[in-house]
Amino acid sequence: MCSRSQPPGRLDLLLEKLRELSIRAKKHSISRCMSLYHPVLQFFRALVQPEYSAVTDVYVLMFLADTIDFIIIVFGFWAFGKHSAAADITSSLSEDQVPEAFLVMVLIQFDVSLSPCRSLRLSAGTMVIDRALYLRKTVLGKLVFQVILVFGIHFWMFFILPTVTERRFNQNLVAQLWYFVKCVYFGLSAYQIRSGYPTRVLGNFLTKSYNYLNLFLFQGFRLVPFLTELRAVMDWVWTDTTLSLSSWICVEDRYPQPRGRKKKRVVKYGMGGLIVLLLICIVWFPLLFMSLIKSVAGVVNKPLDVSLTITL
């Protein structure tokens, strides 16, 4: 005799139905994720590897925006701590009362730089990293840095800073001004990512034309302590070169001069003559000073004690 199979029970039918629903839900979730993933992937791929790219260079404008933000932080440092608007940065430094939020922002803006204080830390970092990415011409690195910076700045400005300063963002005019300039930087940075970095990025933009404005600005740039040396070392670190650091500094950008043209006598005797007189005064001023003191006062400064040491 052959046995007949038992018809499936309700529990078996229910389990089979649940398995089918889970498979459908899994397929649907995978298709939804892929529909979101592919456009995002294509977007970032088009940024990093564009089919056509109108290469441009807006690094100078980005640096200018960062410099303005740095100045805003320095002169409006009281807005980044529990201090009044009448507070002075020099007095706060002398009293060891530097706002922590101020120190963070300065060091991020310039080092992630060379500021003694934690909001001047926010400024230094972005400027140094921007210079490194610019010299290496790394669009992908710039994109990652841009995304991190956008989220980090907004989290800092709207959540952490109001907690530290006990002042809401819409009541902090200095922070609003800083944020506005930073948004301009974000726009320029996004445009740089979209356009791509130029192939040749060396050279100081102040030395690319002949006029008195560029001359004075370049001389002012060179007068800032350690700024020229910092730029030269950074360029050497992130540029492929066979030169040693000392040789690189020797060929660092100088203000351009037309070849074969003699210097004017006004420049030679005006600048060179004054330097010669200054050096002569520095060398001979001590003797002249002692001579005048002796002739005017008529008093000889006799030695009172002498010590002699002989060693082998």
UniProtKB/TrEMBL annotation:
<protein>
    <recommendedName>
        <fullName>Piezo THU9 and anchor domain-containing protein</fullName>
    </recommendedName>
</protein>
<dbReference type="InterPro" id="IPR027272">
    <property type="entry name" value="Piezo"/>
</dbReference>
<dbReference type="GO" id="GO:0008381">
    <property type="term" value="F:mechanosensitive monoatomic ion channel activity"/>
</dbReference>
<dbReference type="GO" id="GO:0016020">
    <property type="term" value="C:membrane"/>
</dbReference>
<dbReference type="InterPro" id="IPR056770">
    <property type="entry name" value="Piezo_THU9_anchor"/>
</dbReference>
<feature type="transmembrane region" description="Helical">
    <location>
        <begin position="139"/>
        <end position="161"/>
    </location>
</feature>
<keyword id="KW-1133">Transmembrane helix</keyword>
<feature type="domain" description="Piezo THU9 and anchor">
    <location>
        <begin position="56"/>
        <end position="255"/>
    </location>
</feature>
<feature type="transmembrane region" description="Helical">
    <location>
        <begin position="269"/>
        <end position="293"/>
    </location>
</feature>
<keyword id="KW-0812">Transmembrane</keyword>
<feature type="transmembrane region" description="Helical">
    <location>
        <begin position="58"/>
        <end position="81"/>
    </location>
</feature>
<keyword id="KW-0472">Membrane</keyword>
<dbReference type="Pfam" id="PF24874">
    <property type="entry name" value="Piezo_THU9_anchor"/>
</dbReference>
